[in-house]
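[Solved] Which block belongs to which protein?

Original post:
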Amino acid sequence: MTPTALPPTPSATLPAENMIQHFPSGQEFIVDYIHMLDASTGWAIGGLVDLNDHVLFTTDGGSTWQDVTPPEEEAVSGEHKAAIGFFQDAKTAWVTYTISVGHPVPAQPVVWHTTDGGATWQASQPLDVNGLEEIYVPFVLQFVAGQDGWLLVHVGVGMN
C-alpha cells in the first residue's frame, strides 16, 4: 500500500500524555482497513509499522484523512495496539483495541463509541475478562440497532 499524508489538523484539545496521540499534520500512514460509506465519506484504521492503530475519517474520497482516534491508552514500549471497528454511518462508530504481540488479556478493555464522526468518544463499561487466562483477540465487532451489538473475541483456551 502507498502511504497517505494527513492534512493539517484543526486545533483541538490534545489527549493526555499516556493516550495514543493523533498524527501530526502531514504524517504519512498505511491504511490497514477501510470502510467507505459512499464515494466521498469513509472510515479507516491504519498507522505506522509497529505503532498503535489510529482511526481515520475522510469526506473527500480518501484524498485527505482526519485522525479521530479515541483516547485509548498507549501500549507500553515494544507493544502495538491493534484496533477493530464497526462504522455504521458518517457520525456513528464503535472501536476497540487489543495488544497485537502475544495478545495478553487486558486488565480493563473497553469499546469506544462516537456519534459525532469521531470528534468525541465515550468508553463503555470495562468488559468482563474475568477467568480469561491466555490470549484476547477481538476480531468481529458488529452493531445492529442503537447500542445492541456483538463483540466476538478469540480467547485461546483449550484447543482454540
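(Second protein starts here: sequence line, then its C-alpha cells.)
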Amino acid sequence: MVDKNLLLDITSIPSPTGFEYKLIEFIYEYSIKNHSRIKPIIDSGELYLVRLSKNNNHKTVLYDAHTDQVSCRILKI
C-alpha cells in the first residue's frame, strides 16, 4: 500500500537537476527513522540505501531513481 502522505511530502520538495540535495536529505532522514535494517549513505551528492543483513545469502536489489525528475513526472499526469 502506498503512503499518500509520504508521496505528497516527496513531491512537494523541489529537486531540479543539480539541486537534489533537499530531497536526498529528506529520504536519508526518513530511512534512518523508519527502517532499522537499511543504512543510508550520502557520497558525492548521491544517496545509497544499503540493506543490512546477518545472512550473506540474501539477494541484492537496486532501486535506481533520478530525484531531479520525481516532481516533474508526477506533475505531468
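Accepted answer:
You had them paired correctly. Confirming on the second one: DSSP finds three helices and two strands in the chain.
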